[in-house]
Design brief:
This protein is an alpha/beta fold and 392 residues long. The chain contains 13 helices and 13 strands. The chain has helices at residues 27-42, 66-74, 90-103, 129-134, 142-157, 161-176, 191-196, 224-229, 261-272, 289-299, 307-312, 329-333, 342-353, and strands at 9-16, 51-54, 80-83, 109-116, 199-201, 204-205, 212-213, 215-223, 236-245, 282-283, 335-336, 366-372, 383-391. It comes from Enterovirga aerilata.
Amino acid sequence: MGFLAERGIAIAGCADTKLVKGGDRTALELAGDVLESLLAQTGIERDRIDGLAATPANAEASNPFWTNMLADALGLSPVWTQVSDLGGGSIIANIVRAAAAIHAGLCETVLCLAADAPTGRFLARQSGYRTEFMDPLGFSVLPIAFGLLSSAYAEKYGLPERGMAKLAVAQRRGALLNDQACEVLRKPLTEEDYLASRMISHPLRLLDCVMRCDGANAFLVTSTKTAREIGCETIVHPIAYRERVNFDPRGDVGDITVTGFSDVGPAALRDAGLSPGDVQSFHPYDDFFIAVILQLEQIGFCKPGEAERYILERDIGPGGALPINTSGGQISAGQPGLANGGVNLIEAVRQLRGEAGPRQIPEPRNAVVTGIGIIQYARNWGCSNVLVLERG
């Protein structure tokens, strides 16, 4: 992805819908809503969008023609399409796949879109090891997998519950300042509230976990030249990206707590010419707080086993040394669909565009966004990816 370092690709705009639980709109309707917002924000004509990159919708999981149906519903006629099935890594993967398509001359302007409405209809079904070894034993939901992962971490380093409590409170403060966050979650939270929340899969508490909701987010990716032509005042460049699927396939590492971020995190920062200390905001995929702990350590912000101390010693709010998930993250804003990662990406882009309102980080120049895929049987998550953004 060396071409990204040339700053020839731009995220020219972004938009999202209000996150809701138990909404009455379909994934296609939410997609239409968010596209209208994006067109209004950027001023680009619909006909200039000639690429479409989507994430699968759990409400439409059985649909093998998702980009076709989206294009029809949205009034688009793309010459290039893409569906990425990397779970929480899908949306940042699509930003870079769109960039590659533009760089290769396959299209000029791409709509990267994620829309889902799983609280009304949920059709996704995963197979493989799940039906053979997991479902028959009741190992059927993600809190169980992340509970086991948390137990493995605790066995080595101790459970970082004070650090996760601070994360929970900081992200909830962000959600309280985020009008797009799901109202069910926009309630004040203290560390005592977090620690008192009930255990659901030891040692995971209820407030460690993400909540599914309905919503959509969208990004306009084009060349820097085109972004300037359409009057984009603030350009955000994707400048580095790394991705790893099925890390450690033979089990050579022998440690379930070591993830693909130990590979792709340092590599992405190196590609961007940054050290962890240079990162001005961090937007890690947060379906469970233990995932944030592992990413901090393995991307290189601190050593293994030291994430709790790292968090406790720093201000992780918008004015702090390392702001983390300043809009609430998925755990306090809501996760639209089973996974796509757009909630954290849109916050990173807004911060760099200076559009985060009361959550705004002073004069940000860069941001790091991550994604996570499914947890494999007796393994860590299946996808780890990292995107580095820079204000143009």
